[in-house]
Protein 1
Amino acid sequence: MYSERLDRYSNIVQSVAFAAMVIVGFGIILLPLLLIIWLSFFQNAVLALPPSAYTLSWYTQLADQSVFVNGFVNSFVVALLATAIGLAVSIPASFGIVRGNFPGRDLMMHFLTAPLTVPAIVIGAGLYVAFIFVEIATDLPLVGNRSGLIAGHVLLTIPWCVRLITANLSGFDITIEHAAQSLGASPVKSVLLVTIPGIWPGLVAAALFGFVVSFSNLEVSLFLVSPGQTTLQIAILQYLEWKIDPLIAAVSVVQTAMVAIALLITNRFVPLTRVV
Amino acid sequence: MATLKIQNLVKRYGTFTAVDNLDLDVAEGEFVVLLGPSGCGKTTTLKMISGFIEAESGKILIGSKDITRLPPYRRNLGVVFQNYALFPHMSVYENVAFPLRRRRSNKSEIDTQVVEALRLVQLDHLASRLPKELSGGQQQRVAIARALSFKPEVLLLDEPLSNLDAKLRLEVREQIRELQRKLGITTVMVTHDQEEAMSVADRLVVMKSGVVQQIGSSRDVYQRPSNQFVASFIGSANFLEGSIRDGFFWATDDVAFPGGHLPKSTRRAVLRPEAIVLSPVGDSGPTRPTATVEEVVYLGSHSEIALRITPNLRLIVRQQNDMSRDSSEEPCRPGQTVNYEIGKAAIQPISD
């Protein structure tokens, strides 16, 4: 009797503790977001609590702020290209790592995912110095050029792409590819017709994560942008150096909403809980 | 349809020889089963035929065409895999149409052949389903239809029934056999299950450690096994050692067995458990030898009885259980003395 009651008691404690941790966890993640959303509707340009009135005017002003609009376009283009190049490198590399049978496969995997373990600020600084050396030696315009910025962001997308694609590829049954070959498809055709559709969720997730990581990156971009070619994150940082008003909150809300919408749309086609 | 000829096929992995000098002729329309324990080289052989493992030396011919060095997609063979290997993102129809599309058939041809292939396996009503919406048995039938839709010259089956549950296995086995007969397609199947092999094969190829032990019909291989391995792998067996004298085979402890049909040089022989007939002592004259029942294991349709002939000779006997009589009592009990009789040609010689 006694131990039964103790069991029930500890069960209750367990579920209460679990619920509390979930609530606290979500609170820590969501509270700043909710605060920012709230803030973006304040009428006062100087922060005051409680606000004297609410307004939508910060959002309408946004379109007139060319730093933010240009920054957004620039970030978007860089993220798009960095993701495309990242995938172009990661897909063949993942096939090599998963299917290949050569010494140094693990090493290659570690090498390609290494940027995840290096602080982004170090990557940015390192690339900046390296680009200067290369530019002096070869006269290639790298520093302060968009191609240099994209190259830096490719480093950020590759680890995510390689991780997600290799995970999906090793879960893909190779006899299905063999079946395609036995039915008359060349090795290249069988990969295109059977394997790629089979690991499609992984590819979508890889592209999405690559894009988000590149789009939201600040540290690497800081060293590599040229004047007049800032990314959205840098534009926000520079704005914050001079003033704090609800405009910055509005920018953040728009940005967050866009990422959230992208995730939701992707989730409709590829259940993200299954691939990540 | 074509013949399949394999000559001196060899595959080594370092010092390990997976397939050692394999020779095999499969006639047009014949159903041959490669049978053996795991690691015997049967799957390696099949993969060399399908092209997924490269032969080290030797030749593989379809008809008169040498395919030994062709890549898998140029071999024009239908392959059915153990785990079905259907394309999960394609409908049943598209799966079966896949080989036809690779061969650039036109639309109406594809349609006719897909429907025809699906009818063969009685799944034409499920053409629009995805593989995951089908049962295991249905999936394997789709895989078979896919492997046949382009009318390949040879059909290769790699443990096609291993992933199915026992009841379904029988059903799909029957269908494979029926289909193979109907189409008359030259077929090679790999399995480790001797009953499965015997039930479908025109000829069995029994393998061990990369070496062919015996090739022959199920009856041949069972009744006249070439060596101890074959005799014990297919069915169960009693093994005897001795020599021929005066038309008898004299085994351990000078027990004589009928041996008039055996060659003079016989040293080892096999005796199938069901070739020994037991009867109560004194039932039919004094000519029959007696022995003691040591153990009786009831197995439903039959019982296995361990029979002590002499201190050094024990035989396993299989006795059919007579269900037409009410026999709640065992026909014989441990400790009982019985007469036993062995058919005139029951003992078969085996090589050392």
Protein 2
Amino acid sequence: MEQSIDWVLVKEVISCFFILAGVVFMLIASIGLLRFPDFYIRMSAITKGSTLGLGLILLGMAIYFNQPGVLLKVLAIIGFTSITAPVAAHVIGRTAVQNRIPFWEKTDLEEFRAYLVKAHLEQHISHDKYLEEKAKKEKEMGDAAGDTV
Amino acid sequence: MSIFQITLIIAMVMLSICLLLTAIRFAIGPTLPDRVTAFDLFVANVIGIIVIYTELTHNEDFIDVAMILSLFGFLGSISFAFYIMRITK
């Protein structure tokens, strides 16, 4: 009975299932990146969807190859992505808050505004905006000087 | 061509559609952080395509490419974030 099972076919079917599930998650993440209204919501969609999709695709490949070396490399890639994706998302989200990327108008910001005031993030501005304001101030000074003369 | 290879090619086509959608967001993204996150998804999609290509050609050497690419994508997004984060008081 056990000899009659075609193990290559079983491996192929399980691998195909995992890979199709992962690709569907990647497609959902891409559609979310295109359709969501706000930078922060888009970032959350990408971080979760693409990490899960990539993990499922890699697991499908590890099941198909059926070797310890390949499994080790696949686990290394899954570990790298699941460590680095939240860190990168956190850093980019913090940068976006400090650069005053606008929120969606339906976002509930009641508690977050208190955090912004507490951390004095309102006093920080990005370098480009700093140069812009400096140029504006210099122009005003020039105008005032022109008026006096 | 077996049904296994056909399934893998279908998965590759779907990942290519993902790359196309990400490229649209990369083009119309209103701010720079939008483009950085689109770049993140680019890297993830390319890793998926490399993995499926590895399975299609039975050549295990391409897995190393996926591993290096996952680390370099992290470095790219982090360096972009620190480039945007030049804060002056």
Protein 3
Amino acid sequence: MIDFDRLMSLLSGYIDEDLDRNICDEINELIEEDVCCRYMFNTLEKTIDLCHDIEMLDVPEEVHIELYRIIKIEISKKR
Amino acid sequence: MSLSDGILVKKFLKGDNSSFEEIVKRYEKKIYNIAYRIMNNQEDASDVLQETFIQAFRKLSGFKGKSEFSTWLYRIVVNICLMKKRKGKQMKVVSLDAPLVTQKEDELRRELPEDWSKSPSATLDNKELKENINRAISMLPEDYRTTFILRDMNDVSTEDTAKILNISVPAVKSRLHRARLFLREELSKYFQEHV
């Protein structure tokens, strides 16, 4: 039987679908039945989603221009 | 239809330099953002971006295609970042065994507030939350942060993350899990205090 502490150590694997079927079934039950476990699962999954969806910074224009200038120099050296 | 990375690399190796410019165009933003997240500042990220593509240009003839091109490129950017940090003596050594999350079951159960995952404020439209997420990511110890950036923010597989960081697959999983728990805890604090 999985207890709360063990659940804590397995949650990432559960979210990544990286656990054996039997363990997943046990965790499913636990999340269904125990409000604390459900809270942990929901908030961890939400944390991962939020971090994943955070937008990337644009490369500043001057950095972009300088990068292409340097690449062109590298290309001209190669010729 | 855009050409695969592999085709672009082959074309470049046959002398088509415009293929390399296409590669730069494809990865410039990703590399900049990985560097920014690891270095925690835009100036260093800009330097790392340039160094990464210069190294890639010079070393591409040695690319054997044993791994994905993106994995090869990410390895370059991560190595440059870590070298730069070592030079700047910003390197923090954190043991993987260090208890990043110290709360025990009783404590976690006692703190149980409402489930903030369903809160209307739990959205990236919430500027304050976004700032808190960025701050929390920057607070992660470097080993954990780098793993988290690759796996959860750039969708690099566990196996490729292990190759890039030169660590084992279990170590990637362990670092990732600890990083996620730390971030969850930080966001929970935000929701307890502000919402």
Protein 4
Amino acid sequence: MSGEPAVVFGVQVGQPPRRTWLWVTLGVIALVAMASVGCLSVLRTGRPLVATAFEITTVLPGGLGEGLGLEKRAARAESELGKLSPRGAYIVIDTYRNRLHLLEGGKVLRSAICSTGTGRVLRDPRNGREWVFDTPLGERVVQSKRKDPPWAKPDWAFIEEGYKPPPPGSPERWDTVSLGDYGLYMGDGYIIHGTLFKSLLGRRVTHGCVRLGDEDLEFVYKHAPIGTRVYLY
Amino acid sequence: MRRLALASICTSAAAALAWAGNEPPSPAYVASRELELVAARKPQVYLVLSPELRALDVRARGVTLDRIPLAGLELLSQQPVLGRSLPSSPSVPAVWMIKEGPGDTDREIIAPTELRPMPAEDEEEEEVAPAPTPAGPTPTPTPIPEPPVSYRVQLENGWDLWITDRLPRQGFLRLVGTALRDGWNRWRGRGLDLPPAVTLVMAPEDARRVHHLFRTGTAILVTTGTP
């Protein structure tokens, strides 16, 4: 500071203002250029999701009904699909909304609130065995029906409550009240039955079975004979 | 439910009337019905996507159990802002099989840490939990979490199916902003490459209620053509 101008970032303080502005301008230009190049590079690398219309491009699969005229093929497909459709009464169960419908010929005979599976998985801490508490989806058939159905409690019923399962056939496994007044058996242990926990109807709380209130269960029991198809979705 | 059953009957009746009037059915329609016949021979639930009707049907054995109207049907793919190469739509009619769906993976696991012996009938447990009244299977006390409204389903054909209640915005500035954000993430090694997705836009409640139907091995039949 002995009469010579001080130097700050290469710029001599006290120099004529024109040169200071020149440096500042050049610096700003350099910064903008670097930022632009960086942005462009980043922009070129980035790949946002772009929507385009779904266009119907028809490509006919081979091997199905070849050798027949279109009318015959269509008639055959319709006829075969018709044979797969249910005859008489059938049951439709919406496992998300927890609704059961009993239908016949397109007419709804009864709609009821039900409870279906939680979808949770139970793991046995002893061996890692797992049970999935899903109500099965797809078509099933009422294989048998029973009044005052007993429940032979499986292992998971004890494990879920934190107990070691008793040996098979032991009296602790028998429960004669939990399934209500009627049971419609759909195979693989899945049953449409009653419940003691009526306040939970309409919620996904079961281990895979379908629970109904007493009056709805009685109606379905009386109007769905053995062989009735059950569609669960 | 009644409307669905009637709609199903009406569709079949319309098909029968069309042929009776000597109008040959379209080859695409015939192929669609034949593909459906293959799916309907199995007891599983299958889904039918109709791009023309903008609807997703839930069916089993040829019976329409539910219909979900679609607000949009689009292809979504990751593209650079400049120099795009858009994918072409998958051909129809076709059957798409689900490789992995959220209906399989989004599950809560209950795992007790240890099991204690059952108390004898005449003895009481030391730490007595309140006895369930009435006795029976314990009701699940905790609520089941709501399914999401936006999720991806992997298909075996390499595509994804994206169920959502809204598409990402497509304005130019929005795309540039997303490109910058995505590019920055890629520079930091956090980029995410997504396969192209057939995107079904539907009401939030509809997206939730079909969530559990997207399970591994479920068939999605994509139909086209009219009788």
